[in-house]
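Design job #97: recover the sequence.
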């Protein structure tokens, strides 16, 4: 029986560190980074490693489709990420929170090759939700150019 989908909420830096651990080495395509300025929301679709499977003794890596959402985002800035190139593959290394004037601050999503997203937030409100198994990454579904096995 597959594990229950993970759903985590971060309201402070310690919570965000837990989410960061779960999204380490996630695969993201620029087309799956959605900035909704009018809604003050950033959503990042990803294929993340199921780090919890190691707790059950499984040795075959498994990927899960997940959504990472930040609310109350005042500004979103990118470094070395061209959202006009929708098929660019990114590897998410981790997420940090740097407090500013309480309760606000900056969330930093760090990707490989020196790429990053910086979110200026009113307060930290982040959610990671698993959406299901990534059959494409495991080779069971149709081929996708952005998600290599």
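Job complete. Output follows.
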């Amino acid at each position: 029986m597959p594990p229950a989908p993970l759903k985590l909420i971060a309201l402070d830096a310690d919570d965000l560190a837990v989410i960061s651990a779960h999204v380490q080495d996630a695969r993201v395509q620029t087309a799956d980074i959605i900035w909704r300025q009018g809604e003050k929301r950033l959503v990042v679709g990803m294929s993340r490693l199921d780090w919890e499977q190691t707790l059950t003794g499984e040795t075959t890596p498994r990927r899960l489709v997940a959504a990472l959402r930040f609310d109350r985002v005042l500004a979103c800035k990118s470094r070395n990420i061209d959202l006009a190139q929708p098929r660019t593959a990114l590897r998410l290394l981790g997420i940090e929170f740097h407090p500013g004037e309480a309760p606000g601050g900056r969330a930093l999503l760090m990707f490989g090759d020196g790429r990053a997203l910086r979110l200026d937030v009113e307060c930290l409100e982040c959610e990671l939700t698993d959406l299901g198994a990534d059959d494409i990454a495991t080779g069971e579904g149709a081929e996708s150019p952005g998600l290599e096995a």
